[in-house]
């Protein structure tokens, strides 16, 4: 059984903390890393360090939990168990489980979060959307530009995404002409609304990401509709679903290291869906009625 | 036919610009307001000042477009028609159509955007979520706390919302136990993630708003799941759908003023759906497989 | 007749928007630049995009107005015609006139605003005052250092400026010994009070600029009067007058391009004086009486 | 002979330092205020603490110099005599002369700098432009609104100003219709461009101040020219000339105090003109030629 | 045995978290406060939440540690045990010990940290140095002004402090004339260099505080030496020593509450000296030699 | 006798002002540097520009005072003699004494302040703690890393410091195990708490600096006590005592220059102790009693 410090060192080699964004909070959050007696036998990978996942780690007997999202992105001055994050800390420490976070350093790694997303969608990656300036190989960076081997319609591509990404209640939202031909695909696991400009510059036909809100999505669509030119269609999946493929990829990376060192680690991937949305209901309203020529607007109070 | 300046004065009495948030950009954005010759016969109300809506105003022969969202929330130094917002300005001016915006001043008005949303959902409003400190009547402010006459389950309430809000492709996302009994409802038209704390303090059973992202929604759900207590279930509808009821309410308010002054205005409500999402696809993935006791996590590479 | 987009491209080649200061707002402000049908036959050049100039463009039948000053240096959220800048926008769009601005990018160009000013004053330019670091030729940058072929007195140089710069009601203010010999001249079209330090370092005998206020001018003169050393005399002309020579230079540049492409453009230079000062009145006060030895100060209330 | 500390106390009662703006630097700048032996016999009042004025104080044998402008508005970390302000400090200390500054506290006092300016112009003060909120009498504050007993034309009013303000080389600049009738006058000694909005709200026919630059003056004139409404004509005098009347007023105030206490002070008012501009030259250019109908613009290169 | 939540509520009533400074981080930092099963039998009070103190709490079998200093004054994103603060968190949680902090809320309370310090020195408190504006009784606030019943010399007062404050290796530093008579004493437990101005305004003869550095202490002494007036002598004790008396006071307050409720709590006060300085060595240098008239300065290299 | 400007030029060559920190205020603060008649015969070097030192300069007949600490680190808007710094300015100017400051430029120079400190302690300097990036020789920068020829115990090293640094009332505070072996020593004249991280990274056994406060010192000691590793012991001497060795070094440097130029300067080093602390009293308290096994904590009110 390897020491905790050895496993942490392996994780930091895969996703160097120094490659995270400055505002990010990555690395080891909890656990007895300085204690040479601390050993690791089981490791659980997950997207979110929430109580359900920590309880799963306890049930599994895991010694180490590796998550994509930080427990405390902004600094805390308390870990009292009356807060839900403090309760996570108490559960971890009482059960001797360490927590390690690889967030934007995993986003930008080679392979990274968006490589796993592209892989899940069956896409061929050609380059990062925002390449790291210090990577001569040109493979590290935020987001990925990808190609489909055969062009398909936007509608068909959305069906493909729905069948290949892990299932969530919320499903996938699409913006654009269903018949539009799609060949070049930009992907960014997690919240991608800050990358619209580079996505457009990359000439993507569709952009797959998460957490798009009304104003950025509306402005992207207005821009796309300009006569002078384009801009991508949009696919908005569940944030969790776009990042979950990374947990399988990461577990496989650690397995390979474990084999190489003869560590005999047992790695697990959490299948708990931590997307907060638990149901989706389609609109059943007849309101507003569909536009029908001259009748596409009307006076309230008038009979409809 | 009233002068443009008279109609604008009526709109500013309904939604005083001084009651908007400091960061907001409300009031008259375009049009010949200083010209005493400028007259108004037709008025169109809409949520978004986008090209489709402006084209609708042109087709209708409207003299004035009233929208909830600002055209320029942040200041611009150009209105060149090569930008999609500049194209809106050019279309408006060439067709002699004025544009007036009532945004956070309409949110906080009595009645306001969230009153219209509550009305559409058949709820009885009891108070604002964040009351304006300078309103002795206690009716103005952001969001609304409401009561249902009869408690229903969360699932039934979600069905009600789906059948009463205007239809959108994206539908409604729900977070919480479908059997949870719902009686007190907090509503906030548009993006409401900044009001979680007051919603929780108000003891709401469910919160209806829009544009919720992974982290705020996830943290709200983690908080709600604490043994020491609650927090609301969540309903996330299309941003546009939560604000559209206000356009009908606003048109009716202006109709009433028109009748009182004998203006003979013709008011219209746009039925163009400007929610950017044009399709929704449900997940059809078998990935990750449902948790089955000990098998709820597994090792990648192992046979599944 | 060239397309509007072709003419704009020519202007942007002369004065690349990327060479403007970060705080500046240059480029195309108004007009149908994305429309391939939009054509240009007449172009008017002016310093200020004010209503009188826009009315002149309408009378001329111009398709394009090019000004030095931005219409909106700070972003606006409204172009309502009740504001004087919104009235400009409405007039431009109703009359199909585009507006393009070249401000600090024209200041720093080769040739730029201060080259035109130097030319009007009959000076030989030797270098920029603040050279652009990325111009190997050393010709671009803010302000210019110049030489007179023959030294003259400050009084004579001021007379020369008064006879060569376009006439304004305000005339020219001078600070310094009228007999001082002047050979090296620093010039900066428009407000130049931020360049005092480089002007002094350049060893200029006189500095020609505009908009100098009491404190910077007073401090420059106090510094100049130090026994240990110098500093320039000052000539403060009307802001408009120091920048107007650029409009002739710019029109000639576009003429040359038009000839080269066979565009047959008709370029015009506005002769409307847009300096705000419409009259100047010389002091006729006997107050305070001239200093006369011991009597150069006195006690109020005492007979004078 | 009073102690220096007694005279300073009297000055601070006239212009309490606590009533200065937060960014200002008023009070005693130099001198042996803590020394009970320090006495005052002669006091010199001036606008600017410049070397010429300090030399005048030395020649007079003054013990105290009182100026309107601070020596160091921004803090200094050196008083070395190689700087022109350090030279002032060395001259003052070597000659035993104290320096006291009353700047924005004198602007806002009752009577204040703008009262003296109004008095010099023969105007009847009705109220401050920006009243101090803590003055129940409503007399303290920035700027003054005044009335003329008989309305006069703008041209006549400008002549009056030229004959009543102390003479400077720069004279007075005027913006507006010379025949405009003037009755309500706003005055603000020194740089007044931050008060345009309150001047307009006060309904002033003309605004007398100093240091106006192109953009604020141009925008004020564009606003004044709007069909919907007015705004003042402008008179821009030398900064020094608008504040010099205060030195006479201040000397008389201290004389009165001296008489009351039997101090037998000798007060003097500096007549040194410290406006930096030493000459004015009227435009003698024929450029650009006056507008003559169709010929009001032309093509460069064409014969003129 | 009371519930943890009951004891925390009692502590928050003594030192309301809302009365802490905005930058401070007080309240419960660790522990199972939301768990109704969590009980408290033993409480340890200490100044610093350092490992030695936490180990003492473990040895004692304490359920709750109450400290004056925050564990995390600035927010943390990790509690990994490889950091010394994370090691504290791990030790606390593994041993089921809660941590509660009362810092600036205890400083400003009635009685507060400086009351305990005054009591230890045998002083009679007359008022806070910086009274809380919302305390009508005038007893809450930062620091305390105190009186000695009989005036003593500064030297005698320093001896008193050395014999009454808890012993530390560093002892006490004194600045001022040893024969100066001391009657009014200002005290501020912990770092007090921000209160010099109010101490001086209060007319204190001596100021007892901690953590004074060269520049503030030097400036205070220079100010005190001005012929025009005073300012206090200074006593700089160990930071820990000035705050330790509060731990006894606080324990007695909780004992009294425990008796009132019949809780039967066992309260303890830590006697571990957590001042970081473990030794003090007096200067034994002959360098620089004492001043002896003309010889008080010399030329390096000259024989001494 | 050299001109003042020549001597200043020599000082600026030794400690170039451009090598000071951006926030610092170095160079000539007072004196007639621009006057070619100003001559220098005697120069006094000292740490602090306080009144006692200036009086010493007057008594000596010095023409120039050179200090390490700035008179005005933050800018001043007054030099009135009622402030203690203004009194210094008045004394200097009345007595014709110039003041020159070399602060962080002297800290970072080669040799610099910490070289002098290392020399006083008999240490061999190996490198700066924070090397200047633009010094190819690697000798300039903040602080110094040093070696002892023979390792000694911390207790012995503290005795050495006490016997070699100039004597002050406050003496030296020590943190760490007295038996710890010390070989590598980090030194930083003046306040050194910002350099803890580089000191630790340099592997120093002890850190000699000044002005350490409770929290940084406590955190350094907690870090040093971590099982995983070290961190230095601490020696906190009087701020003045750590910088005084530089005055001797600086005087010798100027002597050498004087000899080279045949200036015949007379340089002096002030022996006035300007450390603000004038006495030290050791703790004589029996409070708290020493820990004795189980009795190391107790209940207040219980008999002791």
From TrEMBL, chains A, B, C, D, E, F:
Assembly and interaction partners: Homohexamer.
Annotated region (Disordered), positions in chain: 278-304
InterPro entries: DUF34/NIF3 (IPR002678), DUF34/NIF3_sf (IPR036069)
Pfam families for the chain: DUF34_NIF3 (PF01784)
Origin superkingdom: Bacteria
Family: Belongs to the GTP cyclohydrolase I type 2/NIF3 family.
Top-level taxonomy: Bacteria, Bacillati, Actinomycetota, Actinomycetes, Kitasatosporales
Keyword list, A-Z: Metal-binding
Protein name: GTP cyclohydrolase 1 type 2 homolog
């Amino acid at each position: 059984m390897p020491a905790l410090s050895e496993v942490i060192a392996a994780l930091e080699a895969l996703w160097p903390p120094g490659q995270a964004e400055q505002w990010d909070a990555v690395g080891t959050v909890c656990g007895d890393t300085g204690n040479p007696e601390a050993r690791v036998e089981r490791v659980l990978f997950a997207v979110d360090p929430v109580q359900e996942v920590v309880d799963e780690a306890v049930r599994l007997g895991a010694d180490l939990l590796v998550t994509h999202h930080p427990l405390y992105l902004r600094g805390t001055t308390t870990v009292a168990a009356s807060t839900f994050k403090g309760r996570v800390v108490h559960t971890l420490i009482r059960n001797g489980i360490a927590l390690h976070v690889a967030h934007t350093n995993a986003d930008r790694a080679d392979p990274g979060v968006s490589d796993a997303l592209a892989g899940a969608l069956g896409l061929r990656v050609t380059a990062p959307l925002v390449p790291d300036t210090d990577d001569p190989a040109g493979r590290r960076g935020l987001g990925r530009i990808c190609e489909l081997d055969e062009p398909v319609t936007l509608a068909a591509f959305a069906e493909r995404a729905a069948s290949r990404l892990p299932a969530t209640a919320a499903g996938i939202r699409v913006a654009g002409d269903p018949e539009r031909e799609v060949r070049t695909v930009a992907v960014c696991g997690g919240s991608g609304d800050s990358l619209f400009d580079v996505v457009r510059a990359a000439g993507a036909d569709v952009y797959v990401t998460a957490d798009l809100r009304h104003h950025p999505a509306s402005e992207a669509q207005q821009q796309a509709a300009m006569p002078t030119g384009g801009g991508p269609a949009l696919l908005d999946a569940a944030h969790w679903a776009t990042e979950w493929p990374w947990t399988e990829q990461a577990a496989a990376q650690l397995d390979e290291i474990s084999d190489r060192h003869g560590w005999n680690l047992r790695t697990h991937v959490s299948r708990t869906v931590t997307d907060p949305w638990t149901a989706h209901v389609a609109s059943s309203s007849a309101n507003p009625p569909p536009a029908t020529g001259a009748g596409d607007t009307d006076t309230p109070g008038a009979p409809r």
